[in-house]
Amino acid sequence: MSGIVAAFTKHDPDPELDKEILKLAWPAIAEMVLHTFIWVVDTAMVGRLGAQALSAVGLSGSVYWNVLWVFSAIAIGAMAVVARSVGAGDIRRATHAAGQALLISTVLGILFTAGTYFFAPLVFRLGGFEKDVSIMGVEYLRIVGAGSVLLVLTKVGAGILRGAGDTRTPMFVAICGNTINAVGDYVLIFGLLGFPRLGVRGAAIATLVANLAGGILTLIALFHKRSKLPIRVQDLLKVDMPTMKTLVNLSVPAAVEEALTSSARIFSSFMITSLGTVAFAAHQVTLAAESLSFMPGSGFSTASAVLAGQNLGAGRADRARQVTYRSIRYAVIVMGGFALVFFAVPRVIVSFFTGDPEVILLASTCLRIAGLEQVFIGAADTFRGSLRGAGDTASALRITTIGTWLVRMPVLALIIYGFRLSLPAVWVGICLEWVIRSRLGAKYFARGNWERIELH
């Protein structure tokens, strides 16, 4: 709670700084909402096909999007270097680092594509799902995974643009991708407007096309001469080992952090499958509903990361600190509003994703519990964003390691296998994780190690 209290009590009004934060945050929030909507729309529409289809898409989507963040972690290093360089007025270094980041991400995207295809069956064997669910899930994962190269480039490209202070272009790309996905889902899942009824396969194809379009648009934006950070082809093709080393040194802790977070979520999903198909479907619905509330925290985290990095580059550590606490204030206010909505009308929200009465009842209870963690998520994400933007990816890694593997996993295992409690108890355990993460974020940020990190 100390970080949240500090955000509301320690800092004088600064309208100019507030304006900068909001200018960067609102497009980032919109972008995050739109990216999440790809999974949300898939979940909502597939939910009309029944609990089996919902479970197949739920686990596939959870595994795919979580692993994606590991492979696109180079975006964190790219954003930090670009933001510092822009803050210092060194645009040439910023564009060069951006090109090297794209080169690395292309290789990672190829590896991710191959891995998605070959390991898809293993995911469902580990989950212990019934045969029909596994068949649908493997097909969904393989189809969506075919576009992984361009999706990784989209994520890394967005990080580069944000580091330069451009959060609007990634938002525009997300709008285009979501429009394609929503229309594709509508016509391909249910077989409308002359298209065949493809069910889960249709949802996967729609997502694939949306991801391909997003990647192409991002590359156009990065290489366009009117871009805020116009990258040259030679920046992408010529290998510069010192620059790559800097990017990798910043990104490896971020990749490990994402891997720990993603693996914890995936193993959590496997544990929750032992509660039954209805419980797992309710869990996926709760996650999909709650995911919309994450976006303000992610948006203000992005604004805080960019401005912290740029201000450090300009030699203004004091202003970087102010940015963080003011961003937390906004994140807590907005996410507190979501918490009230989750408490007030959970049934209305979860009914958007499924018509199954059992799933609705269970997910409504879980969504109310999820309301308790909202302000802590906002604070934790913003602290993490500032640490990453400053280049202190190691501290962000420590926070995540403690939160996921020393809190979430043991607590969930005890709840599910030790006390044999139901899904609502699982969500109480998840709330505890975020309370601890926010407290750790405040602690590491207050130490100030991030102020002394040099990027070479």
Would you give an account of this structure?
With 456 residues, this protein is mostly helical. The chain has one domain (2-452). Helix content is 83%, strand content 0%. The chain is built from 18 helices and no strands. Helix 5 (91-127) runs antiparallel to helix 6. The longest helix is centred in the first third of the chain and has 37 residues, at 91-127. The radius of gyration is 21 Å and the shape is globular. The two termini are 35 Å apart. The model has no long low-confidence stretch (mean pLDDT 86).
Main attributes?
456 residues, mainly alpha, 18 helices, globular
SSE order and pairing:
Layout lengths: L1 H8 L5 H32 L4 H21 L2 H14 L3 H37 L3 H15 L2 H16 L4 H23 L9 H24 L9 H5 L3 H33 L3 H37 L3 H28 L1 H5 L6 H14 L3 H16 L3 H26 L4 H25 L9
User: Low-confidence spans: pLDDT under 50, at least 5 residues?
Assistant: none
Strands, total number: 0
Count of spatially separate domains: 1
Give the strand content. Answer: under 5%
Shape: globular
Helicity level, as a percent range?
over 70%
Structural class: mainly alpha
Task: Supply the number of helical segments.
Answer: 18
- End-to-end span in angstroms? 35 Å
SSE succession: HHHHHHHHHHHHHHHHHH
Q: What is the radius of gyration computed over CA atoms, rounded to a whole number of angstroms? A: 21 Å
Mean pLDDT: 86
Largest sheet: none
Multimeric organization: single chain
